[in-house]
Amino acid sequence: MRKAIFLDRDGTLNEDTLYPHKIEHFKLLPGVIEGLKKLSKDYIFIIITNQSGIGRGIYTEEDFHNFNNHLVLKLKKEGIEIKKTYYCPHHPDEDCDCRKPHTKNIKDAAREFNIDIGDSWTIGDHTPDIKMGLDAGTKTIFMLTGHGKQHIDEIKGSLKPDYIAENFLQAAEFILKNDKK
């Protein structure tokens, strides 16, 4: 079985401007490429992202795909492969099973890519990222990038991630030091 890193996108990999969906606003966060390169020897990468801007009518699914494809291509040029992106396009008030913190997308990815969830990690900057990872049975890293600093009290109060990282490279180094061999 494979090991995976389940990645939130906005605020974890790229800057989280309000509802990022325009390629001209795309910017990778510091340490992302270096961290992903270090992890790529042992892990596959899956993006799981809530995209309520679609459900709110702020941007279209085509806008989402254009932005996401730009990110995936940028990483591919650096030798980093994103196996798949799972996304929830629904408004937060809709009753769906694909919106984080629900675990549907992790479970679907585990089946599709033969992933050992217990040897995998979830990384994100929001409490639903961490709750999804914990509920699914992954190890978790909470990022202080993106909206992370705004939610640190929630994380420290109710959820217990395995690690809290200042940046992506720090998260990657923690994973490699704590990887079960």
> Rough shape?
globular
**What is the tally of beta strands?**
6
C-alpha-based Rg, rounded: 15 Å
What share of residues is helical? 25-40%
* CATH fold-level label: Rossmann fold
Average pLDDT, all residues: 96
In the sheet with the most strands, the strands line up as: 3-2-1-4-5-6
- How far the N terminus sits from the C terminus, by CA atoms, comes to 14 Å
CATH level-four homologous superfamily name:
HAD superfamily/HAD-like
Task: Report the portion of residues in β strands.
Answer: 15-25%
Report the order of strands and helices. EHEHHEHEHEHEH
> Mind summarizing the main beta sheet?
6 strands, parallel
Structural class: alpha/beta
CATH class: Alpha Beta
Number of separate structural domains: 1
Structure annotation, total helices: 7
Contiguous uncertain segments of 5+ residues: none
Write up what this structure looks like:
- The chain has helices at residues 32-39, 52-55, 61-77, 104-113, 127-136, 152-158, 168-178; strands at 4-7, 44-50, 82-88, 121-124, 139-143, 163-165.
- The protein has 181 residues and is of the alpha/beta class.
- It has one domain (4-146, 162-178): Rossmann fold.
- Helix 1 (32-39) links the parallel strand 1 (4-7) and strand 2 (44-50).
- The two termini are 14 Å apart.
- The model has no long low-confidence stretch (mean pLDDT 96).
